[in-house]
Each structure stands twice: as C-alpha cells, then as structure tokens.
Amino acid sequence: MRAPVAACIGLGSNLADPVAQVRQAFAALARLLDTRLIGRSSLWRSTPMGPADQPDYVNAVAMLETGLAPLDLLDALQAIEQEQGRVRDGTRWGPRTLDLDLLLYGETTMNDARLTIPHPGLCERDFVLVPLLEVAGPEWPVPGHGRLGELPVPAAHGLERIDA
After folding, report:
1. 10 and 61 in contact (C-beta within 8 Å)?
2. Active-site residue, from 23, 40, 101, 126
3. What is the domain count for the chain?
4. Does the annotation mark 2 as catalytic?
5. Could you tell me the pLDDT band of residue 126, with boundaries at 50, 70 and 90?
6. Domain housing 64
7. CATH number at residue 90
C-alpha cells in the first residue's frame, strides 16, 4: 500500500448542465478507492479556450489525498469522465460533458506517454490557477515552477465565480 499523496484535479464541463456535471464529479472523486476528497474550490465560469462556437465552461479544482499511483489515478479519472458521458473523438479543446486533469501529484514530476505532471497547461490557464490557489493556497509547491502564489495568473478567459 502506498503512502497517501495530495493530488490536485482540474474539473471542467460545458455540456449537459455543466454545474451539475462538476458537482457530480466532486462526489465521484470522493468515492474513489484509497482516496479522500480533502478540498474543493468554488465553481468558476470561463470562456472556451478552444473554438469560440461552444458554450462557456464551468471549472473547479479538487484536492485529494490518495494512495493511488499517478497512472492508476489517471485511469480512475478517465472512468469518471466516461461514466458522465465524455466522448473522446480526438477533438482538441472542444465541448465536453466532463474533463478531469491531474494537475499536481505531491511534488512528483512525470513525463510519460499518457501523463505529464505537473499538467503542462497549468501555468497558462487562469481557470486552473485561480481555483487551484483557492484550494491549495499560495505556498503549494509546483515542481519546476516555484510556489503557486509566485506564478503570474493570466487573464484571458473571462473568469467569473459562480458559487462559493
């Protein structure tokens, strides 16, 4: 059995009642084997990062304490996405019922064909950094980048808090 590690998960949805999708995903994360949901951010609305002809996104971040290895956690996240109607058709940044990204896994760095930790887009996305700061705090280390509170927050996606 692995020692528990704190992991941060980015959540996003813009189809099929996005607020409900994200809330349902929080509940599913709390039910994962060898895992505990220890924090969740507010929900945030943002404009799409990809094609503009799609609905706005609802984004959030969850903090987990997990005994799952990174790739096992990724498999569990993808199973939740599939349970909530995610269809992977190869479209990048397109509309989706649910997107779960493993942002941080303790202080682990990893560059595998299936998974890169820290998430490669973490530092470029206000809809990730703002809720991540909310749940993890400014002192949280981001391997290869310094402390979370030291990272500049880009302002490009019309971020708006929609619940607390």
Report:
1. yes
2. 101
3. 1
4. no
5. very high
6. 5-161
7. 3.30.70.560
